[in-house]
Amino acid sequence: MNDHSNINTNNYPERDMMPYERFLRYGGSALSNEELIAIILRKGVKGNHVMDQARQILRIRDRNNTGLSVLYSLTLKDLKTIRGIGQVGAVKLLCLTEIARRMAREERTKRPVFREASAFADYYMEDLRHEAAEQVWLVMLNSKMELISEQIVSTGTATCSLVSPREVFQRASAVGALSIVLMHNHPSGDPSPSGEDIEVTRRIASLGEMLEIHLVDHIIFGDRKYCSLREAGYLS
User: Considering only CA atoms, which of 34, 14, 33 is closest in space to residue 25?
Assistant: First the structure.
């Protein structure tokens, strides 16, 4: 019997075929999220089968959740709270998550061109929506709206109001940017701007006019949602 003998098959449509064998026959796309995690973990423990462990991982934040994106928010400590998952299994899952992050970043092989808020959202959503603390990013663009550089200008702040306009434009000037975009995340998942978000946006836009570095937008990311302050009418 192989190393996958501890995988519980009681709830499978094909009860005689375990996830590992299903993968070999049908490929990864045929497997559920739980089955994919079960293959990584390989085996469970008495009283907590590997498929049960997989279900517990997916629902560790929300009992109704079945999506793999929860892995982005889990820590070594979180995973080790599940009976039968030790340090080795937890590290394997966290490495898998990091691989997924890096693969997504490597897809950015060409200098992207941004024409509208949705393009920024498509490009940056996965980087920002999983962060547990608020981060403020500065995206710097050339005259063709191509990405020159991206930098984190603040992290762990309670509000975007702590961002220094002076520092923003010092960084933009240093790389020769003609346009900039501010972005930050709301860990609550709600991208609605606060009064302070709006105030700092207008202050930076005004200073940018004097320095001839245009603030294109300020985009706030929530959980699979975003708010463009330009589209919302806070920037002219």
Answer: 14
Rg of the chain's alpha carbons, rounded to an integer?
22
Work out the end-to-end distance of the chain between its first and last CA atoms, rounded to an integer number of angstroms.
68
Residues in the chain, overall count: 236
236 residues of the chain, pLDDT tens digit each: 444 444 444 444 444 468 888 899 999 988 999 999 999 998 888 888 889 999 999 998 877 777 888 888 889 999 999 999 999 999 999 999 889 888 877 765 556 778 889 988 888 888 887 777 889 999 999 999 988 999 999 887 655 656 889 999 999 999 999 999 999 999 888 999 999 999 999 999 999 999 999 999 999 999 889 999 999 999 87
In a domain, 98, yes or no: yes
Provide the domain limits for residue 73: 19-106
pTM score, two decimals?
A: 0.59
Residue 8 lies in a domain: no
